[in-house]
Amino acid sequence: MYSKFSAEFFGTMVLVLMGCGSAVIAGANGMTGVGLLGISFAFGLSVVAMAYAIGHISGCHINPAISIGMVVAGRMKASEAAIYIIAQILGALAGAYILMLIASGKEGYSVAANGLGQNGYNLLSPGHYSLQAGFIAEMIFTFIFLFVIFGATSTKNIHGGFAGLAIGLSLVLIHIVGIPVTGVSVNPARSIGPAILVGGQAISQLWLFIVAPIVGSVLSAVVWRYLLEHK
Prior knowledge:
Layout: H1 2-26, H2 35-58, H3 64-72, H4 78-103, H5 111-114, H6 131-152, H7 163-182, H8 188-198, H9 201-204, H10 208-229
């Protein structure tokens, strides 16, 4: 279990550092630098890279919503998922902290003013989308993300060797559509790490990026397990 904890910690750290880092360092909010597409691919490619690096060790969840979904789908024990989630949150905090150390090396940068790629709605949304829009987006996007994961990792899938690629590209797709709405979470750990270090309103809005992805993952697991997988 120690190796799985370490893998999930490291994988989530890389996801937050590279994904959020692409926004903070290379193009904030998709408006400059690498832009929306660049940020979208940074998150997706982080998942692809980690899937092939640590997938054989822990399954490369690097996302509490995935671990919870796996429990509901009957693919994982709740006790094991709890350990995964702790590792993921700690990894996200580490990734956000490293990003803060790097970003702070630029003159004029401040966490309060420039942030760490945290998620938000209303005035904190990149496109100023409402709480309702943000909740629906995070729930549905997570549903889709988990749906792809369940299908790509199914023992019945003859293309299972490409699971990491399919999952990573689906995350790219979700970010292309969702960045203007919330900055895209679909991953409570990814949201928790930056929000805790940024503080203020980022923390007050954090609940949405914990609740909505979990709701989406549970719904996806139920649909997959009881309506599709058992057919």
